[in-house]
Amino acid sequence: MLLAVASLQGRIDASTRALASAEEHLLLRSGRTAQKLSLGYDSLLADVYWTRAVQYYGSRVGVPGAKFDLLWPLLDVATTLDPRLVVAYRFGAIFLSEPYAGADRPDLAIELVKRGIPANPKEWRLGTDLGLLYYLRMRDYPKAAEAYLEASKNPAAPVWVKLMAARIAQKGGSFETSRMIWGQLYESTKDPKIRENALRQIQSLKAQEDELHLDELVDEYTKGFGRAPEKMQDLVAAGLLSGLPVDPSGLPYVIGSNRKSELNPASRVVIVPPPKLPGSGK
Amino acid sequence: MSSVPGVVAINTFREAVRDRVLYNLVFFALLMIGASILVGEVSIGIDRIVIINLGLSAISVIGLVMAVFIGVGLVHKEMEKRTLYSVLAKPVRRWEFLTGKYAGLLVTLAVNTAFMTVGLAAALFYVGRPLVKADTSILVAVYFILLELALVTAITLFFSCFTTPMLSTLYTLGIYITGVFAADIRDFADFTKSQSLKGIARTVYYLVPNFHNFNVIDLASHGNSIPLKLIGENTLYAACYVSLVILAASAVFSRRNLK
Q1: Measured between CA atoms, how close is B155 to chain A, in angstroms?
Q2: How far is A88 from chain B, CA to nearest CA, in Å?
Q3: What is the sign, positive or negative, of the torsion defined by CA atoms of A226, A230, A232, A233?
Q4: B214: nearest CA partner in chain A
């Protein structure tokens, strides 16, 4: 009998799978309503919503063409139910803002983190997260510097937060500053996916910076010899380089067909293009 | 506990143990073990928060279910089995019987809650988190749940003195839900422009037991401290309300025609 029940359940699953729509639905999108219905167990319900947000994100990340439409409502409800759920603001902002591995909605990520800051006045990290979003995703350096400065006023914030504010205000958009920010993110989390992404970004920035310097040397060579170098060894032979320069993965850079420096085709480093700005159409 | 209420209380506790009421602890233990193992797999960064939220919520819900479903039968069962008549034939006053029954159920709930708290601590230890000073707020949350259960038990007992178990359950749950929404009733009183509605809402707000007061689960799960002042105020509030309800229950039960 039990076997028959199990077998029938398998058939019912198959039938209902065919009937189910491809899109997931979220019946309760209002945090306030969810709060009322939770009968006082709102913090437990917030954990359920946050877990659902993580699973929703996890099931879509890396899937070509995947949409993240329910991510914001799930995070909205989770943080309304438990405004002290710091992890939902911090990771939720990453899920929302990531252009390639997320919803690519830095505006919503900023809104989420901005809501978390007054609800968690002791959490200076939310302030630096806001600065990070302005810096990396919006390229709004004055606002990024302001966010870091505001976070540095928290007595628990380490000294580097104030230094970062000063640095962004002075040299916003420089490779070095960007590398410092990604480095801080890499150090501040144990999540392997976020660390991997931060490392990829650091390597990409290093490669972009190297390529800029190498292109300057290529120009210098072209001016001196009246022709562009054909390979990187030409720059070494001309004394412009002491040896073959290598990218963060250890492979030498090459001169491309456009006579500009490039990553070795076998390189594992990926140049990450700057993020699209909302409304810029770029 | 050699007084009459004490003897009744001990017997009520023994009866609950005999009725295998504490078997719910097995369910709680399984829930905690399951949550401890699964939470790290399905979520990010909330292992500790989930264990505390789930543990405290389960302690509260299980306690509430026990308080209501055992509470409604406390008097009714004695009447149905006709044991009440033999007890009252002895030099036992009705209020003593009632107070003893109340205390017995409260002891049962306290023992049950204590075991569940140990289970919660074990689950926290399992997820690799040593107990720290901030965890005193978990103990305060458990204490507040006990105060809440004391209040629910008193209300259940009050209704069971004059109506059927089914109606007692409904009335108690109705009052409990109203009490959970007490803050909304106050907000309604603040927002409404009608003076009469404002008056009614304010009266209801101060009359219904405010169960919202006892909910500090979110504070405990984030390791926030709970002010001593609040602990004192909630203790006094529960003590006053319980005394009032037990007095009312005793008055009703004393006047009830048991024939």
Answers
A1: 18
A2: 9
A3: negative
A4: A40
CB pair distance less than 8 Å for A47 and B50: yes
**What single-letter DSSP state applies at residue A134?**
I
Which chain A residue has the Cα nearest residue B52? A44
Q: Which chain A residues have a beta carbon less than 8 Å from that of B36?
A: none
pLDDT of residue A186: 80
- Number of alpha carbons in the 13 Å side-chain half-sphere of residue B213: 24
ipTM of model over 0.95: no
Cβ atoms B45, B22 nearer than 8 A: no
Phi, psi of A74 (to 5 degrees): -65, -45
Q: What does the block give as tokens for A37?
A: 């219905």
Q: What is the pLDDT of residues A72-89, one digit of tens each?
A: 999 999 999 999 999 999
CA distance B252 to chain A (A): 30
CA atoms within 13 A on the CB side of B4: 12
What's the whole-model pTM score? 0.71
Query: For chain B, what are the domain ranges?
Result: 4-254
Distant-in-sequence contacts of A58-65, Cβ < 8 A, 24+ apart: A61/A101, A61/A102, A62/A101
Cα(B187)–Cα(B202) distance, integer angstroms: 9
| φ, ψ of residue A261 in degrees (nearest 5) | -70, 145
